[in-house]
Amino acid sequence: MATFLYRLGRLAFRRRRLFLIAWIVVLAAVGIGAAGVSGKTTDDFTLPGTQSQTAIDLLEKEFPQASAAGATARVVFEAPAGQKLTSAASKSEIGALVAELKRAPQVASVSEPFTNGLVSEDGTIACTQVTYKVPKADITTAASDALHTVADQGEKAGLTVSLGGNAVQDKAGSSAAELIGLVVAALVLVITFGSMIAAGLPLLTAIFGVGLAIMCITVATSFVDMSSSSSTLALMLGLAVAIDYALFIVSRYRSEIRDGHEPEEAAGRALGTAGSAVVFAGLTVIIALAGLSVIGIKMLTSMGLAAAFAVAVAVVIALTLLPAVLGFAGMRIMKGRLTTKRLRAQERGEGETMGVRWGRFVTRHPVRMLLVSVVGLGVLAIPALSLRLTLPDDSTAAPGSTQRVAYDTLSKGFGPGFNGPLTVVVDARDSDAPKAAAQDAYTVIGKLDDVAAVRPAAFNAAGDVALIGAIPKSSPNSQATKDLVSAIRDHSAALHQDTGADLMVTGTTAVNIDVSSKLGQAMVPYLAIVVGLALILLLLVFRSILVPLKAALGFLLSVVSTLGVLVAVFQWGWLKDLFGIDQTAPIVSVLPILLIGVVFGLAMDYEVFLVTRMREEYVHGAGPTEAIVAGFRHGARVVTAAAVIMISVFAGFLLDDVALVKSIGLGLASAVLFDAFVVRMTIVPAVMALVGRRAWALPQWLDRILPDVDVEGEKLRHVLAARQQATTTAAGDGSEVPAPATPTRQG
Questions:
Q1: pLDDT tens, 139-153?
Q2: Helix residue ranges, H only, 330-365
Q3: In angstroms, rounded to a whole number, what is the distance separating the alpha carbons of residues 616 and 575?
Q4: Family, per the entry (predicted)?
């Protein structure tokens, strides 16, 4: 790999105009394609095999007119202060609006507020439910516009009208988060390199790559269903890793030039060494994110694949476009007047850097530093024991949004449970007494404590499948509602024994409960897969048993401590005002698994970039402690800068109004903070100092069967050194200097 990347780096540097033009053509072509698509996204969240999904499938078959899998919207009307909707004028106006909704495109049914009991007791709030023939992803612009037109007409008539349900499209978020991340990244790069040119190249290539990736994802929405959060996650990770990967390569390029190499040779060596680590680091992130597809949830799959694609683009850009841009910069990348005398002295090898001093401090006090770090992360992880999972609904919408207003208005008028109705399906196809079975279920449900109202059974045409509606007293995400769903389902066994009928619960709340439960169950197996993958990959890279084990355990510490922070902030409400959180709620179900995948990849990034240099020094004869310090001398400054950039990019998304995006931003920022500074730069050197040479031990039989991936480019350096020696010898003999031999084996 290292030899191939060395050649690629020199080729891109030498043919820089060709590479740059090729990438511009690709960007323009994708941009034209993205401009011609609608970019529809969906937040439909289903999981095959759950009871709620089985019930939905049965309803689709037996009650096709109900459009059980179709999108829904709630139009909520509120009377002006001091007035009621039961007045003749208000009734007439609402009736006209409902009639307008019935004529809208793709609408399957619209409920009548005044005949279906959808008016509050005080007569100030009413709602109508719109059911569409198609799922959310297939709702046309005309259908969406018709819904908003009705809301506007109601507002003009003096009513307060708000829209809820999964058919209502979210407003586009602002770009403040991305801008803040870019500004902080620019400052960190300038401080790190002391050069505007050197700092600008990672930003330039990162923006280019992220723009390309987002436009490709937009094009993909025309062919596959994509979650509305897919682009946001891809933007977060794509921007962060693209800057980091370019930072590592540019830093190595400058180092090679300081060692006396010509720019083209420096570009080749930088790609052969740091580029190899970038490939491996990017591969780990891609595998972890793409692995989310094994969970079997479309929303999670689209988010994982979109983010993995953005990371893949970042890697390819770093390996092709970046060396080409380095060719345009040439030696000017070394010119910088923004560094201090101290930093310039350190670049000349004079004095010790902060990283070296920290490395020496940790290796002198390994036991103390290890205990403090592990105990600290353990304390942060304690709140994770109270982790509760849920799916986003209108209650988690941005404050002031029409969805959030509709949710709060319905809670005020009808009680919190009205936003989470339960649909109970009685499957009596194998029963001799379908009506008795349905009546039994209706009676049992009506006697449960947390039930506010029950709608009598409605049968299908064959009379063997019944539909019963139940309104809980508690809010959809409350534990009481979850207990109610369990209580209804627990009656299924007794009902089947007495009548031969089966009882199932579905509806938005039941779906959320089932999906959250399945994701919670999938977390441990997925974690095992990711950790197992980490052990195998790190075993190949470092050819050591203890280093992979240490890296995997450190990764687990980062994950559980991050989950603890999320629970403390979003569930318990600690520092919620600081982060702009207006109410506490369970953690979004997809977040823990997303964190596992993303943090795994990022953790391996820092592990590779920091520890490969330690291994390189150890192989060259340095003692265990000296190798650790040398790794900090060459890698601590760059890893610190990369971590600060990532934290800044992720933390910028805390400004988003959407709770899911906000929680992802805080989670990823916390994870990078813990993993980079506590795990990789404190726990890792402390453990390695304690185990000494045993850190690099590998059984001989295992060493023989493992392929040598040569991430640090050690073989490449030997090939180049031998070539240089042969050239020098030939020149010293006065004979003709042969052309450099092409290496026949890739590292």
A1: 888 999 999 999 999
A2: 341-347, 354-364
A3: 44
A4: Belongs to the resistance-nodulation-cell division (RND) (TC 2.A.6) family. MmpL subfamily.
